[in-house]
């Protein structure tokens, strides 16, 4: 019976506190209680994530590493969640130390994007929210509010750079932007995420 190797991997930590593993980075702070609670401190707010009751976090004081442990390795559900939870922890550590980023490419005649401080079609969800404004072939610009904790910039008119500490939030916002002009296989136009490519199809001739 195979046991998840991902769950066995240790997440390197930077500081040890009583009953807590702490990782500090330039983008935020990540705390994991050695009992059942995980806290991610992101500038103005905190996000908590509960560990399942059958999972615990062990701290090796000598190597300064934290390792996830499950109660019953014979239980399939516990083995599956072992690796999944470890991956989430690693993403959070990378988020506060290096950050997660996604690049979107706008391919099409006249396609471009700008970052605006206000919008006419949507209302801000929090003070200081910015908006991604897309011109991708519609009769009016598409305006999308940038989620809290994510920063957006346009290094080029046809490039959008998204950065944030929460990988899931960054990727979901990228998917929301892509939805407005998914890559199409005949002319190769659309919004591409990271290194995404599409195989062109031959036009149908009647």
Explain briefly what this protein structure is.
The protein is an alpha+beta fold and 206 residues long. 18% of the residues lie in helices and 39% in strands. It contains 3 helices and 15 strands.
- What is the N-to-C order of secondary-structure elements (H for helix, E for strand)? HEEEEEEEEHEEEEEEHE
Strand order of the largest sheet: 2-3-4-5-6
- Specify the helix fraction band: 10-25%
Strand content: 35-45%
Instruction: Report, as a whole number of angstroms, the end-to-end distance.
Output: 57 Å
- The mean pLDDT is 78
Number of helices: 3
- Outline type: extended
| Cα-atom radius of gyration | 21 Å
Low-confidence stretches: 1-21
**Oligomeric status:** single chain
Number of strands: 15
Structural class assignment = alpha+beta
- Major sheet details: 5 strands, antiparallel
Notes on the protein architecture:
The chain is of the alpha+beta class and about 210 residues long. It contains 3 helices and 15 strands. The strands form 4 sheets. A 5-stranded antiparallel sheet has the order 2-3-4-5-6. A 4-stranded antiparallel sheet has the order 13-14-9-15, with helices on one face. Strand 3 and strand 4 form a beta hairpin. The longest helix is centred in the middle third of the chain and has 22 residues, at about 75-95. It starts with a helix and ends in a 13-residue tail after the last strand.
Features:
3 helices, alpha+beta, disordered N terminus, extended, 18% helix, five-stranded antiparallel beta sheet, 206 residues
Topology:
Layout: H1 5-8, E1 11-12, E2 15-17, E3 20-25, E4 28-33, E5 37-42, E6 45-50, E7 55-60, E8 65-70, H2 76-97, E9 100-107, E10 112-116, E11 131-135, E12 142-145, E13 150-156, E14 159-164, H3 167-178, E15 190-193
Antiparallel strand pairs: 1-8, 2-3, 3-4, 4-5, 5-6, 7-8, 9-14, 9-15, 10-11, 11-12, 13-14
């Amino acid at each position: 019976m195979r046991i998840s190797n991902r769950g066995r991997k240790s997440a390197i930590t930077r500081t040890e506190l009583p009953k807590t593993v702490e990782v500090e980075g330039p983008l935020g702070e990540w705390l994991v209680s050695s009992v059942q609670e995980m806290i991610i401190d992101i500038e103005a707010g905190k996000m908590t994530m509960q560990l399942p009751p059958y999972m615990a976090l062990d701290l090796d004081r000598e190597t300064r590493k934290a390792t996830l442990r499950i109660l019953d390795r014979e239980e399939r559900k516990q083995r599956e969640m072992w690796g999944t939870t470890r991956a989430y922890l690693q993403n959070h550590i990378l988020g506060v130390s290096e950050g997660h980023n996604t690049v979107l490419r706008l391919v099409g005649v006249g396609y471009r994007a700008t970052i605006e401080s206000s919008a006419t079609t949507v209302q801000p969800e929090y003070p200081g929210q910015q908006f991604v404004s897309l011109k991708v072939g519609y009769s009016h610009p598409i305006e999308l509010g940038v989620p809290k904790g994510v920063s957006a910039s346009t290094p080029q008119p046809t490039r959008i750079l998204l950065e944030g500490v929460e990988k899931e939030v960054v990727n979901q916002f990228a998917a929301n932007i892509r939805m407005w002009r998914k890559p199409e296989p005949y002319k190769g136009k659309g919004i591409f995420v990271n290194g995404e490519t599409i195989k062109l199809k031959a036009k149908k001739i009647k």
